[in-house]
Amino acid sequence: VAKTSLSSPPWPEVPKLPDPVEEAKYHAEVVQKVNGMISAGEYGRLFAVVHFASKQWKVTSEDLIMMDNVLEAECGDRIRLEKVLLVGADDFTLIGRPLLGKDLVRVEATVIEKTESWPKINMRFWKRHNYQRKKIIRNPQTVLRINTIEIYPCLS
Amino acid sequence: MVVLSAARWIRSRLTDRFWRKQEVLKYARHFRGRKNRCYKLAVRSVRRAFVKSTKARAEKKRVLRALWITRIGAASLEHGLKYPVFISNLVKSQVELNRKVLADLAIYEPKTFKSLAALAQRRRQEGFLAALGDGKEPEGIFSRIVRHHY
C-alpha cells in the first residue's frame, strides 16, 4: 500500500514484546545468576537508597547522614534502617517496587551526634508600616553514620 | 539614716550603646562600601539581608527541584526517553524514587540509571499494547501491580 497520510495510524509503530515463555526463562536465568553472584560475594561496594525521616538518601557504607529532627535513640545506638528502595553494586541493581524485602537487605547505622543547628534568623519586614519581626530558630539535628549494607541471596 | 526611696537626682544613662551597635554591625562586616562600617546604613542592609535569606529558604526548595528535573530530563534523553515519559512510567511501575535520588543516580550510577530507563521504556510499550490491543494480548509483566505484606 502506498504511504499516504492516512495509510498508517498517527501513533508510532509499537514493536511486539518478546514471547512470554521465553521471557520467563530469561528472567529466571538472570535471577539465578544474580543470586549466585550475591552468595559468592562477587560485589564490591554496595549503595542503597533508603527512605528515612521522610526523605530519601543515597547511602553507602561509612558515610554520614544529618537529619533535621530528633531521633529517640541515644548516642551510640545501632539502628537498622528498614524501607530500602534500591540496592546496587557495580554489576547488578535490585529495584524495589516500591520497597525491598527485609530478608533481602540490611542497612545498619549508629547515632553519632545529637546537636542543634546554627542559629537561623527568620525576619519579616513590611516597608513604611513600622512592622518587623525577628526570630532566631535552632533546629535539633541528628547525625548518623551508616556502618554496613548487607544483602542476602534470597531472590526468587 | 534610713533611705526609703531611690535618690531622684540620678538619671539613667545608656552605657552599652557600643555593644548594641556591634550586634548589628557583626552581620554586615562582609558587605561592600560604607554599609559595613556605618551603623545607620548597616541597619537597613542587614534587615534586607535577613528578609532575603528567609524568603530564599522557601525558594531553595523550588530551585533545587527544578534543577533535579532538568538533570533527570537530560540523562533520560541520553537513553532516548523524555522526562515526562520516564517519570510517568516509573511511577506506573511502582518505583517510588524521588527526583533528588534520581538525579544523584544519573550522575554517579549511570548503569543503574540506564536500567531504570529501560524499565520505563518497557512499561511504556506494555502500556501502548494494552491500550491499542484491546484485551486480546496477554497482560504485560512489568505492568502487574505488586501488593506486599510487610
From TrEMBL, chain A:
PANTHER family: 50S RIBOSOMAL PROTEIN L21, LARGE RIBOSOMAL SUBUNIT PROTEIN BL21M
Coiled coil region boundaries: none
InterPro entries from the UniProt entry: bL21-like (IPR028909), bL21-like_sf (IPR036164), Ribosomal_bL21 (IPR001787)
GO biological process, one term: translation
Domain of life per record: Eukaryota
Family membership: Belongs to the bacterial ribosomal protein bL21 family.
Gene Ontology MF terms in the entry: RNA binding; structural constituent of ribosome
A UniProt-annotated Pfam family: Ribosomal_L21p
Keywords: Ribonucleoprotein, Ribosomal protein
GO cellular component, one term: mitochondrial large ribosomal subunit
Protein name as it appears in the record: Large ribosomal subunit protein bL21m
TrEMBL record, chain B:
One Gene Ontology term of the molecular function aspect: structural constituent of ribosome
The UniProt record lists the keyword Signal: no
One Pfam family in the UniProt entry: Ribosomal_L20
Highest taxon above the source species: Eukaryota
Entry annotated with the keyword Ribonucleoprotein: yes
UniProt keyword list: Ribonucleoprotein, Ribosomal protein
GO process terms (BP): translation
Gene Ontology cellular component list: ribonucleoprotein complex; ribosome
Family indicated by similarity: Belongs to the bacterial ribosomal protein bL20 family.
NCBIfam families: rplT_bact
Protein's name according to its UniProt entry: Large ribosomal subunit protein bL20m
Organism per entry: Manacus vitellinus (golden-collared manakin)
